[in-house]
Every structure is written in structure tokens, then in C-alpha cells.
Design a protein that fits this description.
Elements: H1 2-30, H2 92-102, H3 106-112, E1 114-116, H4 118-122, H5 132-140, E2 145-148, H6 156-169, E3 175-178, E4 180-182, E5 185-186, H7 202-208, H8 211-228, E6 232-233, H9 257-273, E7 277-283, H10 304-308, H11 312-320, E8 325-328, H12 334-337, H13 347-357, E9 363-368, H14 372-375, H15 380-390, E10 394-396, H16 401-414, H17 419-435
Parallel strand pairs: 1-2, 1-10, 2-3, 3-6, 6-7, 7-8, 8-9, 9-10
Antiparallel strand pairs: 4-5
Length: 440
């Protein structure tokens, strides 16, 4: 009888030990998100560039420098009517954002819709200090965000002071953003005086196929950005490169949609954990673009079905992980929209597909409105109004901030834009700021 009792006791102890080991393994899996990659621990890297002739892109640096706006007018398309995307249930952040929105004037709300460089804001070039000119400009033009380029970032002490002073001058705390993708697009890592890390290109991480390495890269970027005072990164690139010759080049994780989707997911999670707002770009997908929209009109020839089975996958992955921002490019997609309207001015792309079909409820921002694909055809006011009519929430870098804002205000007065439409976008912007802790 005693032997039988001991056998039962031994069995119970063994079962308990197994249960404890399983529990410990589950907990370990939970605290190592860098190993999850959306459920992927190892990736087939056959869809990554394998030759040495991969295009080295130079799209983002072309944002820097002034461009002259030609006196050319274009027509803006509001697209067909669509059923609005279902809005999520109000959260504490949304409730606080609504209260702040209710206290704002129409002019304050309109300026929140713009994300500009310090040069566009102040009229000074280049801006490396934030003093009276910045303070006065923010009082007159209370924009939603400021994006900085290499010319603004001299060294670590100067950058910290620049961002800290700028934030201190703003009535409503700002998104302070930068393009820090790694590889060829790096404002921090490429400047030794800032003490940053030169993170490799995303294509190199695609070749490795190691989610933990991507997570570590995101952690490094987030730590260095927040250490300087930035709270937003215009990254990751979610484009699926069609080939090694694609315009997007090594900024893409590769040519395989599933690989790109997995690694985009990891980067979004990593930046979010590091308290940095991330932004997927460049919807609906730059991987098969016929040219560079910095230099003029560019397009993609894919159908909606083709985009859904390839280019959309990384965007859907990031959206599922709660990415706060998505940037829409100026690419035209005639097989989807039926015309050559830039994507960020098309309600078919912005509202019907990104907002409703893909279910994105965060902030939709245009690509830079200083690009020739916009300036060759639209005035700053026309482009800003068209983007908002299409469903975008923020306009990035209009050539003339006041002209663009005045155009939006005039559209509200004329009834071509409603104040309720403005309120929808501002509420999303303010909610994102509360969620990120930018507004306390």
C-alpha cells in the first residue's frame, strides 16, 4: 500500500514539474517579442536581392532644398462615395482628444493638419536653432508636426536643444519626426557628431531572415531618436520591391511579400516598444513604380487584385499591429482608380481602400507636397484641399504653408470641405498624440 502511495505521489510530482516547465516556456516566449515576428522565427530569404546590382535609392534626400512652385492648376478628384470605416470605441485617449478638439478654433484645427520642415514654418534656411522666429511662427501657425533633415542636425547638443526648445514653444505638443530607416536613408546614424548607430539597409536584414536582428535594429533606432528628442520615425518602408532594379531599392526588405510583411511587423512592434511613433510608407506600394515621383509623375500598372496579393500585405501586417501612421505616395494607379490622379489625392485609394477595405483607423499622411508630381500640377492650396477631400488627415511639407492653410479655410467657408471633416482628422491626430504620450 505504501509503495502504491509513493508511486502515485511520484506521478503527481512529475506532472507538476512538466506543467511548471511548460508555464516557464510560455512566459519566456511572451517576453521575447523579437523572436516572434508575428509568429515567424525563421524566414525563407529566397525573395531578397541576391546580386550586387541592386539599386541604391536616393528618394528621401531629395526632400531637402527648396523647389519653385509653377503657376499651374490641376483638378482635384473627390472620388466616388464610400461607406465610412467603422470607428473604434472611444478610449481614454480619444476622450481627452475630443475635449481638446472642442476647445480649439477652426484656424488651430486647420494648422494641426500640416506636418512641415522648420524652414517651411519659419521662412529661415537652414534652421539649426529654435529661438524667437520659431516661437513666433508656432504662435501664428500651430502645425501638427515638424520633420527634420540632415541640414538641421549638426551635433548632439545642438539637436537636443533644437527639439526641446521647439517643443516648449508649441501650445499643442508636436510630432517631431525624422527619416531614420537605416541604410541609405539615415539622418542620425550617418552623422558621427550625433552619436548614432549606422544601421544597415532593410534589404540586408531581409537577407538575414532573422526577426530578432530586425527587432534589435528597431530598438537601437528608437533609443537614439528618443534620446535626442524625436518622437516619430517615418519608417518602416513597407514596399515590396519588384526586383533589384526597383526604384525603392535596398530600402525594401525584399521581393517576397510575406517576408516583407513579417519584418515590417517586427519593426513596428520594436519602434512602438521604444516609444516612437512609426509610419508605414509608401501606400499603395512603390515596389513596381515606373519612376520617381520626386522628379515628375510616376505610376504603377498593377490591378487591385495584384496589389491585394502582394503590395498590400506588409501594410496589412503593420495595420494589424496598430501602426499609428500610414503615408500615401503620389503614384498614380490607373488600373485601380481609372485615371492618373496621385494616390494621396484619390478617395478611391485613401478612403475606399486604405481606410475602409484595409480598416486603417489611424493617421493618414501624404508624401511630401514639394515633389514635382504635385507641384507640376497643383498649387499648395489645391493639393492640400484635394488630399483632405480624398480622406487624408495630414499634408506633408506643402511649398507654402500659409497658402495651403488659407486654401483649406477658404474651402470650409465655401462648403467644399466641412468643419466636421476637419474635425475627424484632427481628432485622429490628437488621439495619436495622447496614445504616444506626446500630450500628457
Amino acid at each position: 500500500m505504501k509503495e502504491k502511495h509513493n508511486a502515485v505521489l511520484s506521478t503527481i510530482i512529475i506532472l507538476l514539474s512538466i506543467a511548471l516547465l511548460c508555464g516557464a516556456g510560455w512566459l519566456l516566449w511572451q517576453v521575447l517579442p523579437q523572436k516572434q515576428a508575428g509568429g515567424v522565427s525563421s524566414i525563407d530569404t529566397g525573395g531578397v536581392f541576391t546580386d550586387d546590382s541592386t539599386v541604391q535609392p536616393s528618394r528621401e534626400p531629395a526632400y531637402e532644398g527648396d523647389k519653385t512652385v509653377p503657376e499651374a492648376a490641376g483638378s482635384q478628384s473627390t472620388g466616388s462615395e464610400t461607406t465610412p470605416a467603422a470607428e473604434p470605441a472611444p478610449t481614454d485617449s480619444a476622450s481627452k482628444a475630443q475635449a481638446l478638439l472642442d476647445s480649439m478654433t477652426l484656424e488651430e484645427k486647420v494648422y494641426q493638419l500640416f506636418y512641415v520642415t522648420p524652414e517651411i514654418l519659419t521662412g529661415k534656411d537652414p534652421v539649426t536653432l529654435a529661438g524667437d522666429a520659431t516661437k513666433t511662427a508656432l504662435e501664428s501657425y500651430p502645425v501638427g508636426g515638424l520633420v527634420y533633415f540632415s541640414q538641421n542636425l549638426v551635433d548632439r547638443e545642438q539637436t537636443v536643444n533644437l527639439l526641446d526648445n521647439t517643443q516648449g514653444y508649441s501650445k499643442i505638443p508636436l510630432f517631431l519626426g525624422v527619416d531614420e530607416e537605416g541604410g541609405t536613408v539615415s539622418r542620425i546614424g550617418s552623422n558621427p557628431a550625433l552619436g548614432g548607430t549606422a544601421v544597415d539597409s532593410m534589404a540586408s536584414y531581409g537577407k538575414k531572415g532573422d526577426p530578432s536582428a530586425v527587432y534589435e535594429a528597431g530598438t537601437t533606432i528608437a533609443k537614439e531618436l528618443t534620446g535626442l528628442g524625436f518622437n516619430m520615425d517615418f519608417a518602416p518602408v513597407a514596399d515590396v520591391a519588384e526586383s533589384a532594379k526597383a526604384v525603392i531599392g535596398t530600402r525594401s526588405f525584399g521581393t517576397d511579400p510575406q517576408l516583407c510583411a513579417s519584418l515590417v511587423s517586427v519593426m513596428v512592434k520594436s519602434l512602438s516598444t521604444g516609444k516612437v511613433v512609426s509610419c508605414l510608407k509608401h501606400f499603395p506600394g512603390y515596389g513596381s513604380a515606373s519612376g520617381d515621383d520626386h522628379n515628375g509623375s510616376a505610376s504603377i500598372s498593377k490591378s487591385l487584385d495584384e496589389l491585394e496579393t502582394s503590395d498590400f500585405l506588409p501594410f496589412q501586417s503593420g495595420i494589424a499591429d496598430g501602426v499609428p501612421f500610414v503615408m500615401v505616395s503620389h503614384l498614380s494607379a490607373p488600373q485601380v482608380t481609372g485615371d492618373d490622379t496621385p494616390s494621396d489625392l484619390s478617395s478611391k485609394i485613401v478612403t475606399e481602400i486604405l481606410r475602409n477595405k484595409l480598416g486603417f483607423t489611424g493617421v493618414i499622411i501624404t508624401d511630401s507636397h514639394q515633389m514635382a508630381s504635385i507641384t507640376d500640377h497643383y498649387s499648395p492650396a489645391e493639393a492640400a484641399v484635394a488630399a483632405l477631400q480624398a480622406g487624408a488627415d495630414m499634408v506633408l511639407m506643402p511649398n507654402d504653408l500659409k497658402a495651403a492653410a488659407d486654401g483649406v479655410l477658404a474651402a470650409v467657408q465655401a462648403g467644399t470641405l466641412t468643419e466636421s471633416r476637419i474635425n475627424e482628422s484632427v481628432l485622429r491626430i490628437l488621439t495619436a498624440k495622447y496614445q504616444a504620450g506626446i500630450i500628457q
